[in-house]
Design goal:
Pfam families: AA_permease_2. The structure is a single chain. The chain has 16 helices and no strands. With 389 residues, it is an all-alpha fold. The N and C termini lie far apart (48 Å).
Amino acid sequence: MSATPSIQKLSLFALTAMVVGSMVGSGIFSLPRTFGIATGPFGAILAWCIAGGGMYTLARVFQSLAERKPELDAGVYAYAKAGFGDYPGFLSALGYWMGSCIGNVSYWVLIKSTLGAFFPVFGDGNTVIAIIVASIGIWLFHFMILRGVQQAAAINTIVTIAKIVPILVFIVILIFAFKADQFRDNFWGGEGMPDKGLFEQIRATMLVTVFVFLGIEGASVYSRYAKERSHVGAATIIGFVMVTSLMVLVTMLPYAVLPRPDIADMRQPSMAAVLEAVVGHWGAVFVSIGLLVSVLGAYLAWSLICTEVLSAAGRTRDMPALFGTENENKVPAAALWADQHRRPALRHQHLLVAGRFLADAQSDERHEFDPVFPGRSLRAPAGQAGRDL
């Protein structure tokens, strides 16, 4: 039994994959159109400097705390408890856990609505078949995690690599298709640029630039599984640099292959539409598959994070002590079961309500952004409802 905990330790690479896996979900696939609507390359550069600079300071905070307070586990919750007391710590754990549960359910709405573009039986993600398939998927993830955190983390590492590949292919193809004249024409916005000041253009991107950085605390939450505490801070910084580089390239390169108005009018996920415009229909299919893998990977990463926060609160008696117990595989099984039992009601309500909202919003020109997936446009031409993801 004494050897079991050592088996569960995670390497620097696995912790970095936890950060990347939780940050790269659906948001990155919508960046070209989101920025194309708001601004040109100059405004995009400033927007990423502001958002990236702010998030870099946050990443350094997590790195510093991991080094100065190595005895604290579970990241945000542990730091809130140590800094402000038991009750703020409890509120932090409860709020973080509930927010993660709701966010995890929304992943399945996106998965099923994406599949609905190719298989009508899934509709907008709110059909009976969509709910059944989502339920099966959630329980498959549940029993996989019960087999061991290390196994789940290893699978997360593989999935993280798999979902980065389509993004790298997209970047490489657009680098070869780079047109300096097109980028220069778009630099200040190009033709049809809305009459807005630079500040307004940058502000229009802030919602999505903050959204895509969620999950930067992934390694910090799983700090007790790190082989070395120094790996926690290093994984946070490495993951931040990797993901930021990908997001900046995904944002900037489309300006060098297509006019900004064309990018702004594309359906979501706009990464798929951009690649389709460059290489043909297979590009859209390729990116759509990448999106599904990415969202499934993000769901796994956030399931692990969500369970660990509840378990840590149980171990310190800020939550019922039952949530801090572990099974023979050293998995916080009670916390995982609580997480899973909370989701069915949330899932069914969320799928039905969100699916209905998406269908209604797509026919309403007043709706510009989807509150479930910030940065995702809800406007769609007639006959494309369910395809504008």
